[in-house]
């Protein structure tokens, strides 16, 4: 395994300087053999981005010509994409970019409330930084899907090959009361196990949690510890928690503000809808308690995009439906038909 060692005095692709990689500070399990680079990208202070510079932590995996950036949801660190990193970056045709959004994971938590527009500028700046200016495939889940919408509105559509919006909304929808109560409890507890217990009730259907786990491929450390999907979520979440940091109270509020204030109208999305080359795709679950399926269908109507509905599935399709989710994305990135996968 060859990993680029970018030190404080070594310029990166665009001439800026990256922080030293975090390899020495993270558990060895994280160093899967697809890792090429892990470093910080500094978002400069500016009138549209806030008054302070801050750092975004990111990783590059694989060296293939087909480029995919995965953007996580509310409070989600890049470790949440582990199954997708292992699947795609292991293939010779792919290179994968994953990041911790501002206010989550190893990235900084700049002061103030965030918007999906400024978070989109973070990702667009990072894409420029790593030299991804064309043929980029974008996958965003939940809040990450809202950020991806803003990337299409704010950025050059010629940069993108496809955009896949997972369990997301064009905006102006408040959470149901029961979901809001869960959020308050998530916000005030700092116990990792209690956070997991509260989160799993929001993210996954109860009947799925009770089913035998069939997703242990690539997770040998969980063999013998896992019987049901609930075990998989609990034990896997605790394992992944060693690779990231708990979201701070400020980060929680700032990202929540971004998700609640997001709005992308049909008119704003029309250039993406009418683009002759960029492929759009909507993925959603029928039992999503966080962002109801109807919200994703509304986004699909704005974009007139093909939509795959996962019957009985909840909010976190990349984890709950890993095999089908990855297979659908593989076909989306290759330009093949995804309906019926």
UniProtKB/TrEMBL annotation:
Residues 68-320 form the AB hydrolase-1 domain. Coiled coil: none annotated. SUPFAM superfamilies: alpha/beta-Hydrolases (SSF53474). It comes from the Eukaryota. Pfam families: Abhydrolase_1. Signal peptide: none annotated. This is AB hydrolase-1 domain-containing protein. It comes from Tieghemiomyces parasiticus.
